[in-house]
Each structure stands twice: as C-alpha cells, then as structure tokens.
C-alpha cells in the first residue's frame, strides 16, 4: 500500500558515518513533492550540527540498548573520563568498567560486498569484542523509529499505525543484505506490511528530479525548471562508506527509467578519515596506538574533529592550515611537538597552543585516491551514456574539494550540480518513494538470477575441461539457468517463470535453491577452485514453497514466479493439488520476500497566490547572534506559499552547519570590509594565532597587528530601546575601539546583498533590478531604530523603492499560519491543517538578543489581525551566554580579563563552543556534565584546576585532561531568569487573550530546555508548538511578507504618536504642580496631542491628520516636531526633571515638509497626514498655494 491511507511517511537511513530520519505528512505539499519534508537537527558535544547523527551505537554490558548517535559517543567518552579520574561507577552494572560496554561505529560497511549472509553473523566493537550484527542493526533502527515517533506525536494525535516506513539501502547491495535489513527492521518493531526498502541513488534521483536545477529559455525569458521528459541525469551518491552511481531518464509521464545497472565501490568519506589517522600512525607509531587503547574517548574526539572539518577543505578562505585540537593523551607523549613538526614524510605540520596545524595541501592530498576512483567510474559511464547533468548527493558530496574536482573534470562536456540539501537528498527522496514507489518505472538488474539445472551432455558443445568437470553420467550438472541477466531492464511487477521439481522437500514445504552472480553470462552455479570465474556465482538462499501436506500434491512440479522491477525481489509459486492449480505461500530463506504496493497519495489544493512584478524576493535578517538571508522566485510563489524558500547553508571552521551565520563583522584597520560571519571569526582567530607565534604579516597593512582590525559581534542589541538616535552614533568593537555604527550595519547588509545576488544570478539571468528586498526588525523597536536600518540598507546599495521592513514576529506568524500544525478530525479521519479563520495564536519570537511576543487572529480571508501591541525584552540566548562567561569571571577574576585581552581568539572559541552546545541542554540523556575544552590561555593560569574545582559559589565543577566539566544543573540554572521573564509575559497576555496555540520561533526557541519549560508552564491550558524550521521562521516568513504585505491586515500601535500643541489654561482642570510648570501666560504649553495611542488598532494605510503652523519655517521647508511614547495617555511632550513620568515622552524626530519657495504659500498652515498600519510610519503633507491645496513632499527625519 505504500503511503496511501497513512498519515505520515518516515524514512530511516542507517549510513556508514551518519544516520537519521525524515518524515512528511500526507496532507503536506500536494503539488511540490520535495517540500514539507522534515529532518531533525542533531548536535554533538563537540558542536557538530547536521540533519543526521553519528552512526554510533552504545550497548550495555548485557547487550541492552544504551544510546545512539552523538549521544552514544558522548556517554562513552564521559564514562572513560570518569574511569581515568577514578570516579567511574555504574549503579546498574556495578562490577563493570567502560571497556565492558559495546561501542559500534561505521557498522554499515559490514554488509558491503556480502553475497552470502548468515543469521548468526558477528561484528566486533571498537575494542574488539564480538556481538550479533543483526542486533546492532535492530537496535539502531529501533532508536530512530522511536525518536521519529516521539517527534511526530509530540503535539499531534498520530498513532504508530498511521506511519509508513521506508528503509534506505545502497543499490549495490546483494539480495541477502537487503533481507537482512528488512528482518532487522521487523525485529525493531516495524510491521512488514508498513515497510518498504528504497535504493539510495533512486531516492536521491526522485528528490533531484523535482527540483528546479536546469536552465530553460522560453520566449526569451530564462528560468530554472526540473528535468524535462527525455532528459538523462547521473546520480553520484557519495556517502561515508560507499559511492553508488546510476543513470536515469525522465519519461513522458515524469517517472524514471534506470538506464544502467548501479555501480559503485568503497569510495566514501571514511576512506579520507582513515588516511588522516594514517598520518598520526606513521609519525607516532606505537605511541599513537597505545594512547587510544588507553584513552579511546580521546581518539574518538580526534576522529569527530576531523570528520566535521574535512568538508570545508577546498573552500576559498584566508586559511592555510586545517587546525585540529591536540588530544590530551598525545600531548603527554615525550617530544610530541618535535615528532610532529620534524616528520620528513609529512613536512609543514606545526604545533601551536594546543592545536596541530596541517597544511591544507596535505589534507587535500588525502582525497585524491577516492576522487580518482569516482571520476574514473563516471568517465566509464559517460562513454556509454550521454547525460544532461551529473548530480552529486550524499554527505561526501558536500565536500567543496570533491565537488570542485568532479566539476573541473567534466564541466566542459556536462553540467555538474550539487543541489541544495545534497547531504539529505537520499533521506528526503526516500520519503517521496514511500508515497509513490511507482515513480521508478524501470530498473536494470545488477545481478543475473537463476536456478541450477541439469541438461544432456554434448561432447561437441561441451568440449573443454571446465565442462567435463560438470559431467555426471550423460548429463551436465550445476548449469546456471538464468531467468534474468545482469544488465537486463525490468519493469515493476515483471514476472519470470521457472518450472522445477525440487529435490529437497519437507512435510509441508519444498526448497528451491536460488543463485546470483554479477556475471551477465554465467555458465555454472558452482565451480571447483581451479575454474573459479572472475565473477563467482553464489547460492544466495532458497525459495521456500509452503504447499501444505506433500501427499496432496499430484506431482512434484512447481511453477516458481520471481517478480522483478522493485527494490527487492518477490516470488510466488503454483502447484497442482487434487487437479486444481493453486497459488502457494512462498518466502526466501537467506533471500528476500517483500511486496511493494503502487498507490496514489491523497493531495489537497492550496490557494493560488497572486504574482508580483519582481522576479525574486530576498529577506535579510541581521540577528543579535546569527544572521542570514532567504529568497524565493516569483514563479515558485503561485501555489506553494511556505515552500521553495531557499536558505544557504553556512559552515564555520568546526563545521557547524545551519541556516544562518554568526553576526560577526571584521573590518580592516582602515575601516574597509574584510569578512562576515563564521569566516570573519575564523580569519580573526587565524591572525591572532599567527601573531602569537610571531609569524603574522599582512601585505596590505604591513605595519599593523591583529588588534588594529575591528571585530564586531552581537551588535544588533545596540539598537534595542533606542528611542532617540543620532546619525553619527558609535559602537565599540570586541577590543573597545569605537567605530561608526551605521557603517557596521551598512557593511553587514551589503555583504548579504552581494552574497544573495551571487547565489541568485549564478544560474539565472535575473538582474539586481528584478529583486525586491525585505529587511527584518524586532517589533519592539522604535521608529528611529527602524529608519536607521532602512538608511543603512539604502547606503548598502538597496534602492528605497525595492525595500520594505518586516516585523520579526509578524514574519514568523505568516510562516506559521499556513503550516499544517493543528489536528482536525473529519469523517473519522485525522488530518493536520493550518490555523482556521477565527483561531488565535501567540508568536513568541526568541532570538539571540530579544524576545518579541504578539497575538494574531486569522480572518475569514486568511489575513492576520494583530490583537495586542508587541511586547518583549532582552530575553534572548545571549543572556545565557553572558551568564556562562560570568562563571569564569567570578572564579578567575582579573586573570580571565587578561586572557580576554591577550588571547581574544581563544576566548572567542570558548564562546563559540558554549553557544553551540547550549541548545541541547534539557534533552534526555545519560550525560551529567557539559564539557568545554579549556582554552590554552586559561590552561596557563596558575593553579587553574584548584581554582575551578575549589569554587564555593559554583560547586561541582571538575577539570580533567584539558576539559572543564560543568554540572548540567548549573548550566540549566543559567536559563531560569530569562525563562521566568518570558513565561511571566506570556501569562499576562493569556489573561487578556484566549489563544489556541503558543508558537515558539527564533533561534533561542530551538533550546530543548526553553521549549520544555514553556510547554510545562502552559500545556494544561494551551498547545505549545515549536514548528519545523522555527529558527528560520522569521527569515522565511519575511520572504512571504515581501510577496504579500497585505497579509497583515490590522496592527496594534506600540507607541502613542503625536505633536506638541498649546491650549487654553483652565485653573480648575489644570491644578497640579506639573500643570502649573507648563503654564505660559494664558496657555498650557507642550501638551501632547496624540494622533494615535499605544494599544490602538490601525488598518494598513490608515491616515491621521494634523493641521499646524510650524514655528520652524525656512525658505523652502518647515520642520514639524514629532513625538512618541509607550504611555497610552501622555499629557506633555516634555517635563522638568521633578515631574518626569514613569514612561516619558521623547522627541523622536521631525517631519520635514518641502514646499519650495516660501513666498508662494498662502499662509503658514500645513496639513500633515501620518499613515499608520504598516511596519514603518509614512507621512504626506498639503499646503495652500495660490488658492489651491497642493500635495508637497514630506518625510520623517528621525536620525538627529
């Protein structure tokens, strides 16, 4: 049945290096199959973040499950650390040591090349202990199955029986290996009828086929489209263990035909990892081996460190070395520095401040052998098949060096593409396969399959020695009777018959031997050793025919029907019982038996959205901690509102991957741009390391030191609560040097503008003038802060007419509104649907700096009304970061400050390390500590261990082998204050607004601890959701806002805005001391005349008028003072110090009215019209000129 009638399809990929799952709901994305597929984010303690977790399984000494993935590696490492500190004790296994646990890594390769498999196969763990291979796969699949069910059912009433499962396998695997995986999955609790297998390159091909990758010209217009019918493309699937290569042709019905049989080999990323470890082994010999026998946890960390960094090899950066933190055990080898730096085989290695620097060329050389084998196989296939494109997918294809090498080898003759999410294309494609397996409409058999027969011996035909060996009396025995040959094309459900009389019978069944070989023209099923052919034939199993009692059979003849064309073989059989032909039960023993069901997926239609004149919308989000951009083409916005919004992947030097880069800007000593994001931090760190080593020199600035560069981090908070802003405001960099704040924002926006245009124009002919830009801002910002951002964007080269600002919680609300998050039962069937009209939801946007909270109501036309004014505060993730650094400052005092001053790069790494780990706090784990590698500068502090472990204020901190261990409870306590502020504000709003759901958005909302705390506080009364891509919901929602700003159809003013007037003084009404201060002659001066009050609802384009005679008239313009306050009922625009209210009023700027020559005015009266209801205020004005009312230029000047 495949995905039909199942609410959700889940694909599981047990990879050689990394494993994971993806899922999609049946109601998601009816037209664009590739959208709406969700993958969780996994983050290890060494800060690795990706859509998959490590393929590492940890079992307890009794063989029971302990943990999987990054968590398994972390738990294993923690056990060994405790053991070396003589603190190890396990309550469940009190007499056991860490070596008694089983850790399995990269175990998938055990199935590679296995033509014959046994149920009792064993595998050795990392320390050499033997264990059941099937149990290892079973427990791994079970973990991912339960994790997926937990993610799916966390908020929705979905049952396990609503789920259809897909398990991915390499296409080059044998049939016994496929059945091995199926059996393991069934033993893991997945029902056979709810399970199918997907071939990895096929899954990648399905995901690729639907993406718009190919340049297409139509009516002189260029756009990107999916592969069209009759086009051919090659999928090169490069994983951790193997590489699979296949060629497909798109048919007229948009299904795929496999053109050549799958080929491949052991060309995956693990081959590079092994070569890297080989460098250490060659240099340190037995000392290396002994270190990691004694400290396997540190050997594991070394492998993790390299694994996460190798993918960036080949990128254009200012770095000359790959920097690897030196494991503690290797630091203790006598003369390790001399041995590493003195190697003649590997010259150029350097050791500095606890890190080993490998020349990038040395690391790139590790890739050569794998790349040579891959390109050689591609070349061979291209001689046979002309293709339109080569598509690189799989984890290793994310390596810049691999992509560039393959591209350089073939780009002169064929396009080489590395699509978005190439590392997840197999997983996501497997989800599509689960819904529509019939999308693969023809396959090529990789093996010849058949049976053993005997036939008459012919001395003329069978005249060689090999034939005579098989002669038995007058027959030729062991002849291979092929029912399909390697290289044959087979259609789904194609049946090949074989009529036989099985020699082996049981009381109620018969066994028919089944054979396979990669030889396309095999002669015999078995050979004596002297005649072994190059491609051996294997007895891969038996077909078991369950026909009931044997004496009911009229004869022993059975017609076996083998079904080809699916990912696994299927088989049926017929035999004659009491004169009737009967279909009998059948199965493979050691072979395979699975039925695939061709189904349609139930689809729903989404509203068609109106198109705009521009070709693409780009949204830029300058965040407090992380920044990025997203874009979407106009042609993609017609039907799939929240889909096809593209965000680039950013990676730093430790290979953290996410949809945003760090908010770090590096400027040269002369103030010109150097770099932004992770790259800025990496360049700055490399400069500092070279300076400390005495080798720093910059050709452009030869007399400068790294301290002369400007590094700005988390600078967005400088605009928080700025009611009044100056044009020439300054900001201090991380070393205290002042610089123009507007330049900092301008250069940051200019970086993203350039990066986005390069990404968009790389494959299309889109011009900069075809792009509409959206810049996100917090909803709680003042009007001057908004104008500051707009001005910075315009100075960065974005035309004013092509720019709009989007409020962050509104953007998140737009992205959330159309996602299918809410459970609905209809006609006895459960579906997930978007928010329906009249429903209200609260958006809690938690970023790095601030938290913004708004409540919206969905209208009948599906637009949104803002229900309450935006509220918020400095409740973001940076508050936890600062509290964490406070621990170090409290304990080490001035010594910490000295380290920050002298080694800013090492303190920066400390901050990065914590930033990337804090999101995991609160997850269910057996870990008791948060581990932070101690920066080298802090290692050099006198008595560092005694100071850290002796702190009374922070008891429980431990220091061992270069790492500081913080009790998890201590780290969780850092979250309490901001969480308290957030929950208090939510509680206040819920009292005034009954809502259907609380939606958490923003990077800080990805913290498990934050999510659980808020959920536990409110789940009894309201649903708390943390939707997929919550950290990108603002960015993606801002893209939607750029296409349809009218989707926000009512807002609530956060401020009271107005003007200063005078009015008659009334001694009865104006009797307070404060009123008396404002009396001037018979007038009350400085009175606040509101044109809108804080809390008022305003419609888009709603106009409020004010007629005035400005005191400040010039020859060709007048200035009208404009005031704002958070007070709902302000009295005066200014007050003496004695009477300043709790919420003061601010002169936030002026309205400049440009009327030309003053002499043309009939009078000094101006009608000012302020337009509300958009993200920024706008203004127009009318004057009386020559007896007529005329529109004149007017604009806000809010920057002083």
TrEMBL record:
Keywords: ATP-binding, Nucleotide-binding. The keyword ATP-binding applies. Gene3D superfamilies: 3.30.420.40. InterPro entries: ATPase_NBD, Hsp_70_fam. It comes from the Eukaryota. CDD domains: ASKHA_NBD_HSP70_HSPA12 (cd10229). One of its GO terms (molecular function) is ATP binding. It holds the Pfam family HSP70. The keyword Transmembrane helix does not apply. Belongs to the heat shock protein 70 family. This is Heat shock 70 kDa protein 12B.
